[in-house]
Protein: YhzD-like protein
Amino acid sequence: MKTYKLTAYKPDGELITEETFEAENDDAAKEKGRALLDEKGLADQTHRLASPMGKLLLFHS
Structure:
Protein backbone atom coordinates (compact mmCIF):
# COMPACT_ATOMS: atom_id res chain seq x y z
CA MET A 1 0.00 0.00 0.00
CA LYS A 2 1.14 3.51 -0.83
CA THR A 3 0.30 6.72 1.02
CA TYR A 4 -1.41 9.54 -0.92
CA LYS A 5 -2.14 13.13 0.11
CA LEU A 6 -5.35 15.02 -0.67
CA THR A 7 -5.66 18.76 -0.04
CA ALA A 8 -8.48 21.25 -0.70
CA TYR A 9 -8.44 25.04 -0.48
CA LYS A 10 -10.81 27.99 -0.34
CA PRO A 11 -10.58 30.59 -3.16
CA ASP A 12 -8.43 32.82 -0.93
CA GLY A 13 -5.91 29.99 -0.47
CA GLU A 14 -6.97 28.96 3.02
CA LEU A 15 -6.57 25.23 3.60
CA ILE A 16 -9.91 23.44 4.02
CA THR A 17 -8.69 19.88 4.46
CA GLU A 18 -5.50 17.87 4.24
CA GLU A 19 -5.81 14.12 4.43
CA THR A 20 -3.53 11.19 3.86
CA PHE A 21 -4.78 7.76 2.98
CA GLU A 22 -3.47 4.47 1.63
CA ALA A 23 -4.32 2.82 -1.66
CA GLU A 24 -2.89 -0.04 -3.70
CA ASN A 25 -2.19 2.05 -6.80
CA ASP A 26 -2.80 5.41 -8.46
CA ASP A 27 -6.14 4.40 -9.97
CA ALA A 28 -7.50 3.21 -6.63
CA ALA A 29 -6.21 6.43 -5.02
CA LYS A 30 -8.05 8.56 -7.62
CA GLU A 31 -11.31 6.74 -6.86
CA LYS A 32 -10.83 7.12 -3.12
CA GLY A 33 -9.82 10.77 -3.48
CA ARG A 34 -12.92 11.58 -5.55
CA ALA A 35 -15.11 9.77 -3.02
CA LEU A 36 -13.60 11.76 -0.13
CA LEU A 37 -14.13 15.05 -1.99
CA ASP A 38 -17.75 14.15 -2.77
CA GLU A 39 -18.38 13.02 0.80
CA LYS A 40 -17.11 16.34 2.17
CA GLY A 41 -18.81 18.42 -0.55
CA LEU A 42 -15.46 19.69 -1.82
CA ALA A 43 -15.45 18.44 -5.42
CA ASP A 44 -15.91 21.98 -6.77
CA GLN A 45 -13.26 23.53 -4.50
CA THR A 46 -9.63 23.86 -5.53
CA HIS A 47 -8.03 20.51 -4.71
CA ARG A 48 -5.18 18.20 -5.54
CA LEU A 49 -4.22 14.61 -4.95
CA ALA A 50 -0.54 13.69 -4.97
CA SER A 51 1.12 10.29 -5.09
CA PRO A 52 4.03 9.30 -2.83
CA MET A 53 6.34 10.06 -5.78
CA GLY A 54 4.91 13.58 -6.11
CA LYS A 55 2.81 12.82 -9.19
CA LEU A 56 -0.30 14.97 -9.43
CA LEU A 57 -3.26 12.57 -9.83
CA LEU A 58 -6.20 14.93 -9.37
CA PHE A 59 -6.26 18.70 -9.71
CA HIS A 60 -9.06 21.25 -9.86
CA SER A 61 -8.74 25.01 -9.59
